[in-house]
Amino acid sequence: MLNNHTINDKNSSNSSNNKNRGYLIMSYKSTTNNIYVNRLFLSLNHLLHALHVFIMVLLPFSLVSFCFPKPQGTSTSSEKWVGTWSTALQLVETGNNPPSPGLSNNTLRQIVHVSIGGDSLRIRFSNEFSTSTVTLNSVHIAVAEGNGTIDTTTDKALFFNGKSDVTMAPGTAVTSDPFHFALQPLTDVAITINFGRTSPDVTGHPGSRTTSYLLTGNKVSNANFSGAVTADHWYVINKIDVLAPDSAYAVVILGNSITDGRGSGTNKQDRWPDELARRFQTNSGTRQVGVLNEGIGGNCVLGACLGPSAISRFGNDVLNQNGVKWVVIFEGINDIGYSSNSTQIAQNLISAFMQMIDSAHARGLRVYGATLLPFGGSSYDSHDHQKAWQTLNDWIRNSGRFDAVIDLDSAMQDPANPVKLLPVYDSGDHLHPSESGHHMMAEAVDLTLFGVADTTTDLIDEKYDNQRDTFLLGQNYPNLFNPTTVIKYNSPKAAMLH
Fold this sequence. Notes:
Helices cover 29% and strands 25% of the residues. By secondary structure, the protein is α+β, with helices and mostly antiparallel strands. It folds into 3 domains: 1-69; 81-244, Jelly Rolls, CATH 2.60.120; 247-498, SGNH hydrolase (Rossmann fold), CATH 3.40.50.1110. Strands 3, 5, 6, 7, 8, 11, 13 and 14 form an 8-stranded antiparallel β-sheet that branches. Helix 3 (272-282) crosses helix 9 and helix 6 (342-362) runs parallel beside helix 7. The chain is globular.
């Protein structure tokens, strides 16, 4: 018989064993948990250490980027400067100088019509043909609203090396610092300049076909220029560049009064290069093509008629443009009109064209030749001049020296009398195109020369509806007039080319 003491000892022993077993189990779990926690701690520690190193490595670069942000208008590898507007400069004739009270210490607002848009711009000003210094006290740009009025919410001051004023020495030019500006394609913009001292002989462009507004004193921030003295000329302004995608380019049109806009409407911005820029914007494949008008009224290719000869200004006005890829040469009618030796003048023009073609090709540019417009019945009309015209146009079409031909002659001539302009395209002097003629010239250009053309129908603008039966184009491209591309052109006498 077991006594109570024995039973208690057994119970006590069992209890002790259970406690020891539980302790071992608990010890194992604790050890496992400790190992897990330790490993987790070490992992977090390594992670924090790596993060610390990562921050220390990147922090200096972040501070550099923060402290030295990208300057306004600085191009990236996928952007470049491309011309959206330009004008050919010359020494302004005395009769076209600024009206009284003159530019010195006064404010001039000038309107220009751009082609492509962008959000970063720079503007070039020139004193290259003047013999005295010209000081720009302050310059502003804004969207123009008509009659010298601006949208003041878009008004922006320009700077030159960080300063609001700049002085141009004789024979020099200046370009503004790049600046941000929301420029839409085909916009009229106002460039307003408050001048300091200016030169009595002025660098500019007489044939602006656009009204400029002059007020006394410093009125650079005025919303409107009511009461201003007006003149249809430009002074000292030269070109506007935009920061554009790498795929953007410009075409330069070298010409005389027809390209300059003789026969187009004042303040209508309907010169044939303007009409071409509008066509580019309606076609998805050419919306990034800027159009630069380098026409001078009364200009000659070979000699100094009005403004520098085309051959002498080819470098500045064509090759030195930003983003240029194509050149259209559309000159020669004034050389023919003034000549007394038609055979010789035609050969001299051909030699000059070949020289310009070679210079452009050396820069990797494509050169398109535009045939000269008919001029029968004009003051230039004579048997010898017609012979030189035909010789030159035949060479342009058939020599193979141009990368393509824009046969404006074929597009603009009267089928019943090919030596004359079709009456609806004639401004009345039988030399310059009418507004309808400028529109037709742009319509005659094959857009595939400058990019991919849409296959949709390109119809005449509504403003030409009243003349639609005379030239209903409603055409698909390639151009119906000439699948290889053609443009037609004609020039007036010196007195008529202003």
